[in-house]
Design brief:
Ribokinase-like; EC 2.7.1.49; about 270 residues; 9 helices; binds adenosine-5'-diphosphate; about 40% helix; 9-stranded mixed β-sheet; UDP-N-acetylmuramoyl-L-alanine:D-glutamate ligase; alpha/beta; globular; binds (4-amino-2-methylpyrimidin-5-yl)methyl dihydrogen phosphate; single chain; Hydroxymethylpyrimidine/phosphomethylpyrimidine kinase; phosphomethylpyrimidine kinase activity
């Protein structure tokens, strides 16, 4: 009998953040914390820190295809997510590969703009994400500006967040989280969840007064992806994702001089302390 352990495997399809706080790096740190084995398809490289994005390089389609092919030939990926996809060419490359291979339930985090304001998706790629990628998704997790771009709605309160959830389901996404982090006038940071079976609920948390929110969306969607890889149902995976990101924001760490990264150890550390 072998003593070797087996962990579920999850995949992040995203851009890298050299600063380590967002993108693929946030995804891998989160997936690892959830005791899931993380694999990656790198779509773009950014030169980035907590202050901003200094440079970005989308990768050639051939190497994107090759990464998917390598993983499909060998690993047993049980869930996957997308993050920064850069432009029309890269979105289409990812769509093509996701149609070709089965990597389990797909969470689409339709990343468009970094916290510091740098574009991470070209304007003309928004329609391609909406029309070609979203219909493949088990779950989409837009923030408010992303949900506005995808639906054409103005979303400035919780009632509008509900309408946006319904509109996104109308675009073919099964399950939706409309994240409320950008509703900054609010004392809380609540996210609206609308599930395939028509069930809806709010994920509530106190708003933490901090600028250290680099990678919040990546962390939430990566945690959900890890839980889905373990076989969790969608509602439980989403609730665990919110607990994870809430702790990671609230129990902050000091890195860099701008929009600092989260504390990916926080939820696990809380468990050991109490
Ligand atoms: N200041 C904050 N305090 C508490 N939770 C926050 C804060 N900012 C964002 N969140 C939470 O982090 C998650 C990611 O949301 P958001 O920041 O809107 O996404 P994105 O990183 O895609 O812009 C959500 O669960 C949101 O409610
Ligand atoms: C490579 C990459 N992917 C995603 C984000 C979004 O993260 P945030 O919205 O927290 O800046 C980012 N800044 N960089």
């Amino acid at each position: 009998m072998s003593d070797l352990k087996q962990y579920p495997q999850a995949l992040s399809i995203a851009g890298s953040d050299s600063g380590g706080g967002a993108g693929m790096q946030a995804d891998l740190k989160t997936i690892q914390e959830r005791h899931v084995f993380g694999a990656t398809v790198l779509v773009a490289i950014t030169a980035q820190n907590t202050i901003g994005v200094q440079d970005a390089l989308p990768l050639p389609e051939t190497i994107i295809d090759a990464q998917f092919k390598s993983l499909a030939a060998d690993l047993a990926i049980k869930a996957c997510k997308t993050g920064m996809l850069a432009d029309v060419t890269r979105v289409r490359a990812v769509v093509r590969n996701l149609k070709k291979y089965d990597f389990g339930p797909l969470t689409v985090d339709p990343v468009m703009v970094a916290k510091g304001g740098a574009p991470l998706l070209s304007e003309d790629a928004v329609a391609v994400v909406r029309d070609e990628l979203l219909p493949l998704a088990t779950l989409a997790t837009p923030n408010l500006p992303e949900a506005e771009k995808l639906t054409g709605l103005t979303i400035d309160d919780e009632a509008a967040m509900k309408q946006a959830g319904i509109a996104l389901q109308g675009l073919g996404v099964k399950n939706v989280i409309i994240k409320g982090g950008h509703l900054s006038a609010d004392q809380e940071s609540n996210d609206f969840v609308l599930l395939e079976n028509g069930e809806s609920f709010w994920l509530t948390s106190k708003r933490v007064d901090t600028i250290r929110t680099h990678g919040t969306g990546d962390t939430l969607s990566a945690c959900i992806t890890a839980e889905l890889a373990k076989g969790a149902n969608i509602a439980d995976a989403i609730r665990t994702g919110k607990d994870f990101v809430e702790a990671a924001i609230a129990d902050g760490i000091i890195v860099g001089h701008g929009h600092g990264p989260l504390n990916h150890w926080a939820l696990e550390a809380r468990r050991h302390e109490f």
